[in-house]
Write a structure and sequence with these properties.
With 187 residues, the chain is α/β, with parallel strands linked by helices. The protein has six helices and seven strands, in the order βαβαββαββαβαα. α3 runs antiparallel to α4.
Length: 187
């Protein structure tokens, strides 16, 4: 069966490879637009669905997987920072606080649709101001929700993780594996 990952995220590609699937990478170029949402889970599921459907429409013979990850501080979604100033502001907001990271997943095949999510609580220690400013000057934060990767530079300031760490990395591994294997076994 042909499987397509609608993402060019290195971390998502690595997770798919670790699960043992042969797959293609065709990243969605769709603008992420959501006019309303009822919860953090609803928002990331809508975004994942948009990406998956964008690729599925031209690949109806395949199983397409779309994902989207956002960091939420309270009800405020934090996407990817676009400037050094925005990065500094995001990391300062997260410093010393617990926040939620939610990843939405979407699997689409000819006779199958599944839209799901996984979340994780992450707590940062206080991050020194000079470390935040030095970090914002690197290229690391600018393609990551909330401006950080749990396995990257800022990871040294994480005090605790409660939930599926793969949600923070961007692809809930066990949940996705189970759903894909279940579908593949039926076909």
């Amino acid at each position: 069966m042909r499987i397509i990952l609608a993402s060019q995220s290195k971390r998502r590609i690595e997770i798919m490879e670790e699960m043992g699937f042969n797959f293609e990478v065709i990243p969605s170029k769709k603008d992420e637009l959501v006019s309303s949402y009822s919860s953090s889970a609803d928002l990331v599921m809508q975004l994942a669905r948009q990406k998956g459907e964008d690729i599925y429409k031209d690949n109806t013979d395949a199983i397409v997987l779309g994902f989207d990850t956002l960091v939420f501080l309270g009800d405020e979604p934090l996407g990817k920072p676009h400037s050094e100033e925005e990065c500094i502001n995001m990391i300062e907001k997260l410093s010393g606080k617990e926040h939620k990271v939610v990843t939405g997943g979407y699997i689409r095949a000819k006779d199958y649709v599944d839209n799901y999510y996984s979340e994780c609580l992450v707590k940062f220690k206080e991050i020194p101001e000079d470390a935040i400013k030095a970090y914002a000057k690197t290229s690391e934060p600018y393609d990551k929700a909330g401006g950080y990767a749990i396995q990257g530079y800022i990871g040294r300031y994480i005090e605790s993780v409660n939930g599926d760490i793969f949600s923070v990395i961007g692809l809930p591994k066990a949940m996705t594996y189970e759903k894909l294997i279940s579908y593949i076994k039926k076909h």
